Amino acid sequence: MLESLVDSAEQYFSVVSTASLGYLALAFLTYYVSVVIYGIRWKLVLRGVGRDAPLRELVKAILASIFMNNVTPLSRSGGELLRMAWVSKRANIPTGVSAVSIIYERILETIPVFALFLVGMSYFSSGEPLPFVLLGIAGILLIWVKWDSFVRLSLRLFRTSVTEGELERITSLRRMHNLNLIAILLSSTIWLLDVARLKLITLAFGLDLAWSFIAVISVANLLFGLVAFTPGGIGIIEGGLIGTLTYFGIPMALALSITLLERFVSYVASSIVGFAVLLTSGGVEIWKALKSQ
């Protein structure tokens, strides 16, 4: 058995050594461009509820929150609280307002995620993509018509409780058509960059996989993250991603290499950067104050 493990390790390292550093550098770039876009979207949503904050502080808060999400159990259990406390201290934004803005961001994300799911499903379809396009349009129209019900459903899915005042403020944002359009476009860009990052990592190993297949992997990655109960989804996301890749015929050594490099970008490196921001930008004091409340 030991000999088998040694052979597997040697096979893995031989595959990793073939990875293109250029594609990996681009994968890192797409990750941090998406963080900046997160900050821009958050700034726009805050403006929609009558508040504003410097983009620099919002990006710092997001980077620090990524670290907290990666080291606290359950999805977003610590990071979102840190984001609310951060803007409360640095931009004098009430916690309730920042909570509304973050919840609204999550609600907006469901639209591009739904579209991504449809693109992924087209991978399994040998026919025309028209039915998926029509289903996507119908789904978006339904969300818009039944906006209040959709907001309540999203809050249940995210296991988030809000006051009636906060709920009214969230639902009233629907009337800001320009804000919604721009925010949805930014959310879509973030998810496209997420798919592009996976594509770049597979290209680093010489695999030119179909975009629809990459969409399937991205959706699977999202689902594994949502159900994970360990800090940052560690162990669950890796196992799920390796299992998904091998299920679709990717050799084990290659699946392991893709998974570990993707997690190095999205978990290890992001944790290091987030921790550095937390230490150098006063985030530790904000977190201590939050815990003492």
UniProtKB/TrEMBL annotation:
One annotated Gene Ontology cellular component of this protein: plasma membrane
Pfam families, A to Z: LPG_synthase_TM (PF03706)
The organism's place on the tree of life at top rank: Archaea
Name by which UniProt lists this protein: TIGR00374 family protein
Regions crossing the membrane: 20-40, 107-124, 130-147, 179-198, 210-229, 241-261, 267-287
InterPro entries reported for this sequence: L-PG_synthase/AglD (IPR022791)
Keywords recorded for this protein, A-Z: Cell membrane, Membrane, Transmembrane, Transmembrane helix
Annotated organism of origin: Thermococcus siculi
Subcellular location: Cell membrane
Similarity field: Belongs to the UPF0104 family.
Topology relative to the membrane: Multi-pass membrane protein
